[in-house]
Amino acid sequence: MPLTDKVAAANQINDLLKMILSGAGFRLKYRITVNPPATGREDWRQPEITVQFAGPDSPILLARNNALLNALEHLAVKALHLESEEHDRIGFDCENSRQVHLEEIRMAADVAAERVRKSGMPYKFAPMNSRDRRAIHLALSQPGDLRTESEGEGPQRCVVVYPKDYKPGPVKHVGRRR
């Protein structure tokens, strides 16, 4: 379902969070913003609805690589029945962890791009989730001298960065011959 009525979606997220947080006894507050101000990153899609958490139980949201924060965001996306290509229209954050993570992804993409430009050889990232893969693809979409592809299945899916016109050659085996 497309996200057409953002205010109604924000109200639905609010109802969901009230139920979950009060039922679980979390000491957290949150602010939901519709159409937040731009971050200045034209190559990254800005979420149209953001939820910022704060409070004494913030460390619980951020434990284990933001597992609970990501789970809450996932529940909100499912409650809104968003299609997979619209998942990034909703963004949950706590103590600016999401923004810091996106900047780390951006820096990793820049390092990989420079490595590929210098060596002329592909660079394969470690497996990552779909949102991080998308951030890599977007970060490297300009200036156009590189191309990115996702490869692998399920939790082993990763991004590979190639020079734009890269064509793999024959496989060379290195080592002793018998």
Write structural notes for this entry.
The chain has 178 residues and is an alpha+beta fold. Helix content is 42%, strand content 17%. The chain has a three-stranded mixed β-sheet with strand order 1-2-3. Helix 3 crosses helix 4. The mean pLDDT is 88.
List keywords for this structure.
single chain; 178 residues; alpha+beta; GMP Synthetase, Chain A, domain 3; Ribosomal Protein S8, Chain: A, domain 1; three-stranded mixed beta sheet; 17% strand; elongated
Question: How would you briefly describe this protein structure?
Answer:
The chain is an alpha+beta fold. It is built from four helices and six strands, in the order H-E-E-H-E-H-E-H-E-E. A hairpin with a 6-residue loop joins strand 5 and strand 6.
Helix residue percentage: 40-55%
Give the structural class: alpha+beta
Task: Tell me what portion of residues adopts beta-strand conformation.
Answer: 15-25%
Number of strands: 6
User: Any idea how many domains?
Assistant: 2
Relevant CATH superfamily of the largest domain: K homology (KH) domain
Radius of gyration: 20 Å
Just name the CATH architecture of the largest domain.
Answer: 2-Layer Sandwich
Unreliable runs, pLDDT <50, ≥5 residues?
Answer: none
Through-space gap between termini: 60 Å
Shape: elongated
CATH class assignment of the largest domain: Alpha Beta
Query: How many strands, what sense, and barrel or not for the largest sheet?
Result: 3 strands, mixed
Which fold name corresponds to the CATH topology of the largest domain?
GMP Synthetase, Chain A, domain 3
Oligomer: single chain
Helix and strand element order: HEEHEHEHEE
Report strand order across the widest sheet: 1-2-3
Average pLDDT over all residues? 88
DSSP helix count? 4
